[in-house]
Amino acid sequence: MLDKTGFILFPHRLRRILVNLAEKLKPKPNTINNILRIKPIKLMILTLKLLWSSISYVKEQIFFGRKIRKIEIEKDPVFILGFPRSGTTLLFRLLAADPQFAYIKVFDLIFPYASRTFTKMVKPLLQRFFNKFNIKEKIVTNKAFDLDMPEEEDTYLASHGSKYSVAWSFIFPVSSSRLYRRHIEFNEPGSKDKWMKRYTYLLKKILYKRRKKQLLLKNPSSTARINTLLEMFPNAKFIYIYRNPIYVYSSSCRVFEKAEQHVSVQRFGKQDTEDAIFDFYELTMDHYQRGSKNIPKKNLIEIRYEDFINKKYETVKHIYKKLNIPGFNLAEKSIVELVDKENSFKPTTHKFPEEKYLQLEKKFHKYIKLLGYNRKP
Predict the structure, then answer these.
(1) What CA dihedral angle connects 235, 242, 140 and 257, to 10 degrees?
(2) How does pLDDT run across 203-216, given as a tens digit for each residue?
(3) Residue 286 half-sphere exposure, CB side, CA atoms within 13 Å?
(4) 88-108: average pLDDT
(5) Closest CA to 296 of 219, 243, 233
(6) What pLDDT, on the 0 to 100 scale, is given for residue 375?
(7) Could you give the CA distance from residue 122 to residue 179 in angstroms, rounded to a whole number?
């Protein structure tokens, strides 16, 4: 049975998930070396998670599917763009302090099909558990787990079991470049329409849970999908934050290596990681340069990472003014409190031997010049 979102109900959905897993585990060219990279225990855990996701999905469709699909996206979304490790997460957190916005939360990743009633009952108990045992997020922030923290759509789609998510690149790193390009460039027949259906359903589901709010969305891969997003939301607002490519690259390598340890079902070497990240960066930036030209000037603001870090409050206030987003006065207190909290956090410093820096400078020369950075600040 096929429902209107394009997902296939159990057991057909289960079969599709298993086929997708097998396809991702078969990179091109397929070699014995690639097979030996598989981590069997993590692959088994992932498979069990997706099996549970399939069962939960059927329940959602039976009880809530029709209600979710009836939701109208009345307000144009606000999209936060930028390559990972460019300050997008912090900016997302500050803007999410405004109660007028709706967004995906960490709790939604753990229980992607939870009802509002289940969420009200379980979330406080789970948060107390995380606090008591000081459980931290291990890959990106290394901060205490906060179930109300905003999260990315791609991460949620992967937890949904949808194959149309760039997050699979972290889980199956051997196929990462192929998966990234597939879900950015939609180079398979019909893939763009299928992605749009799944993405629209996801956004309606966020609004179903949060009710009549404006969507606030942060998804690094959206940086390369601007034209597709404009097809869906011609009047959407976009916030693009950028950083020195060399430091973005260095930080991304660290995150990718942590992902390989904690979530990947395949082993991935250091050189493989560096090559994949450069490929991601080049593809994302080139697509952004082309797509951003189609955004009306009144709906786009571009922010330099260093300016944002030094003046967080002023930057957020300027975003509201430039994009004509109402309600800053109502959110100001919450934003200031979070800014004060974040100011006590010291970001990681990046130091390179001169030879290594020169290599990276040569590799990223095009983008260093494009973004207006000088040699070795």
Answers:
(1) 120
(2) 999 999 887 799 99
(3) 11
(4) 95
(5) 233
(6) 62
(7) 34
